[in-house]
Task: structure prediction
Amino acid sequence: MAGTRYFGGSAFVGTGEMTMEHQQHIVVIGNGMAGTRFVDELTSKGRNSCKVTVFGEEPHGGYNRVLLPGLLAGDQAPSDVVTHPPSWYRERKVDLRMGVRVVRIDRSRKTVHTADGTVTPYDILVLATGSTPYLPEIDGLAYGAGQLKSGIFTFRTLDDCQRIIEFGSKARRVAILGGGFLGLEAASALRARNLEIHIVHAGGHLMDSQLDTTAGSMLADAMERKGIHIHLGQRTNRIEGDSHVKGIGFADGTTLECDLLVVAAGVRPNVELAQNAGLAVRRGVLVNDDLSSQTDAAICAVGECAEHRGVTPGLVGPTWEQARVLAERLGGVSPAATYQGSPHSTHLKVAGVDLAMIGEPRSDDISEEVLTYTDQKRAIYRRLVARGGRLSGAVLFGAGEDSPALSDAVELGSTLRWDGVLTPTTAGASPAGGVVAMSETKVVCNCSGVTEGQILAAVKSGARNVEAVTRATRAGSGCGGCRPQIQSLLADGRQAGPPLKESASPGGKRLAWLLGA
Result:
């Protein structure tokens, strides 16, 4: 084919050497947090003999997207965010194509085609294309050929972050469109740069997809104490200004002036390539338990672009668990490995605001049981949800020290009896009935992907306080939500969280701490 360059095949091994022995060629589309973790797991400890090619649309190596709010605030340097520089790929003999966009997948020929005209064959194709920012249909948001007006940004990539920092140095008033996780973190980060910040949210309270009215109201109060202005129930219908944003207009006719606008209205799985290739897609690429596509066994998907049992992961923990399972299967460590879903927890990365969500804290079914505790004076709120008598989720506001124990209880599927007794019934619970200790492979720090085993290794090597563990592992260097767990591991090595108060019931521990006792 004229003008087409072919790469890959059985004779190319990444170092320029040639061999007649066929190597399985794994091609990864996407060099974000799912793609980098998959390649890291696949090539670690020399356990993989496959040839690996990675296409990354961004002109960078791998970096930790979770740490971008810290970079935006000025608390992190770009070098703190980068996890896999180009040299890392060379050391692992991985063929990294930075800044190269894949435009088509040819399933019949098992090739991927890029915007620069290259064609690369694959034996196994892994889609790790992640998500793209959702841009609502608002008059005046873009001009010309879909280009955002000057002063309008999304907050998703390292380049987005650096452009906002540069533009923000000349800005005065910033509007954040969206009152979810990303919008709140962007608002807090830019407030740290002494800018006037306004959050505009169409819902009746912040994070209305995850929180109830009480928790949302307490969160708004906490953000306002940080000097951030909150505008609720405001539906944006236009952007003021010609080529540069000057303000936003609302459906009620009022306006809010601004000279910098960050659109944080959510994300959508990036599945266009998969759809065009004929793969089954709903919200994400439909995958089996082995993370292969339901349409084509030679194509797999992990992370935010994958839909497993109706769920597309929006958090780091499940994404990295998928990457580990797929790497073990394709790398031959555990050929029968499957992904069964992941309990998850996340912390809002806003300095001075303590909000954690564990498991599935929403309650939309009449059969679910909900226990809440509110202390407005101390700004403490706790909400537990049980399904089928087992703890399935929790929201903790102002009570982060409780999250390690509750996270373990959700993962165990512990029985929750509303007489105040929490009794783990899953195999692995301690003889006394307490919450089982975390496994050494369980991620403690979602921001940096640090496991309990890595933290314990740092302790054994001489780390004697949280700061020393952070220096050795980077755990706790992001949102800080894992610092109580790090402290607990330092205290007695295997304790999963703060001890619960003893119950008079044999084999149980009373949740008196939950009720503020």
The longest strand covers residues 380-387. Residues 316-330 form the longest helix (15 residues). Confidence is low (pLDDT under 50) at residues 1-20, 424-438, 494-517.
